[in-house]
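Work Package 4 report. The design task specified in the project plan requires that, given a folded chain encoded as structure tokens, an amino acid be chosen for each position. We show below one input record used in the internal validation round.
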């Protein structure tokens, strides 16, 4: 069997909820990272007040903490959220 076949999501009744949460959390993590990059760009450009920078920083830290909590709740390691896109490489660029 090829490596791609082995990486498919299992549709076993016992794992379907965990696999679905893995997919949802992967999408949320991608969005969180995109928001963080955009915020850093705005900070670097000087588009934000100190209060806005502080609020964005706190929000991003809270979001990262919630993501960690959801990963723990569903027994996922955050590294598992980085999907392998084959020749394009890892989705989140961690692998």
């Amino acid at each position: 069997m090829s490596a791609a076949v082995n990486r498919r999501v299992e549709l076993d009744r016992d794992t379907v909820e965990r696999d679905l949460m893995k997919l949802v959390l992967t999408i949320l993590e991608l969005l969180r990272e995109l928001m963080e990059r955009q915020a850093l760009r705005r900070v670097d450009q000087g588009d934000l007040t100190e209060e806005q920078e502080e609020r964005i920083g706190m929000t991003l830290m809270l979001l990262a903490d919630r993501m960690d909590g959801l990963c723990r709740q569903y027994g996922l390691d955050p590294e598992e959220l980085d999907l392998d896109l084959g020749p394009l490489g890892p989705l989140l660029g961690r692998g």
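Residues 9 and 20 are 9 Å apart (CA to CA). Validation will be extended to a larger panel in the next phase.
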